[in-house]
Amino acid sequence: MQEQDKVDSLQDVITTPFKDLENFTQWLLTKGSEVGWSLVSAILILVVGFWVSTKFKNFIENRMIVRGVDPSIRTFLIPIINIVLKVIIIMFVVDRLGLNASGLIAAIGGIGLAVGLALQGSLSNFAAGILILIFKPFKVGDYIVSQGNEGTVRSISILNTVLDTAKGQVITLPNGNLFNNPITNFSTNEFRRLDVNVGISYDDDFDKAREVLLNVLEKNELVDDTQSKTVEILEFAASSVNLAVRCYVKNSDYWTAYWQLYRAVKYALDDNNISMPYPHTEMIIKNESNSSTIPFENKD
Q1: What is the end-to-end Cα distance of the chain in Å, rounded?
Q2: Chain segment 191-236, per-residue pLDDT in tens
Q3: Which of 171, 133, 177, 119 is nearest to 149 (CA)?
């Protein structure tokens, strides 16, 4: 009996590791298949979700274009919508992998708070971007001047506004500084006043010069006939009488009319013998004769 017990004990010693290995292998296969399926499904959700979010984002953008939504609003909202959709998909992936989504959200919130405190200027630019879209002091395509910078608005993004200058330069302005400073928008109204300042000689006839310059304005097709045309004396300068030539043209025609009128004014004054004096200084030398002297008389 004792020998049988020894045999059973020896058999248990030999077979137990194999049983444990079999159990471990079975557990590994079970868990491995579960983890593998979770990983495959998570990757599938990520790929398909990103594809669907891109299609949905493009659909929203196309609907905005069809409905004539302002380009400023489109360029501002579309990136935000894209980010939000992708964050939602990533949360689904995290949940599918069996991770603690609430803990991840809390961690992201804490990181977001820390980043927000470190980037207060960027948050103010973000808020200013939203205010620009709400109050619309300008929009994409407008010609504006602010803080000594001027150009055509190319885009309004989350943090910055990009201008294209007439010299082909690109200026990026923070939305916060832009919104909190005076902005001159030349594109809000359909028409814009065009100023031509020209000087004539003091010896020239003002009435004749005025008639010639008014005729120049009348002949130009880009000058709006429904609004006032003005030719008056602006100032008496050191070497010329400066005239203010004023008219109104469409914003889209401003620079074309600008070049045309300056050229036409020069030709018209030359044809009518009205001079445009250049700055000069006249020196007058006064030669005084010696004053007569009265001789001293001694009355003593």
Answers
A1: 180
A2: 999 999 999 999 999 999 999 999 999 999 999 999 999 999 999 9
A3: 171
Q: Which structure tokens are listed for 77?
A: 């909202």
What is the number of other CB atoms lying within 10 angstroms of the CB of residue 273?
8
Radius of gyration (C-alpha) of the chain in whole angstroms? 41
Residue 190: pLDDT over 60: yes
**Amino acid (one-letter) located at 30:** T
Distance (Å) of CA 271 to CA 76, 81, 200, 243, 265: 55, 63, 14, 18, 10
Task: Decide: 214 and 269 in contact? Cβ < 8 Å.
Answer: no
Residues 6+ apart with CB under 8 A from 283: none
Predicted TM-score (pTM) above 0.70: no
Which two three-digit tokens encode residue 171? 């200026």
Q: Which residues have C-beta within 8 Å of that of residue 159, sequence separation ≥ 6?
A: 122, 125, 126, 129, 174, 175
Angle at 243 between CA 237 and CA 246, to 5 degrees: 145
Residue-level length of the chain: 300
274 vs 265: CA distance, rounded Å:
11
Residue recorded with tokens 């949905």:
56
Beta-bridged to residue 48, according to DSSP, are none
Nearest residue to 52 via CA among 97, 77, 75, 82? 82
What's the one-letter identity of residue 95? D
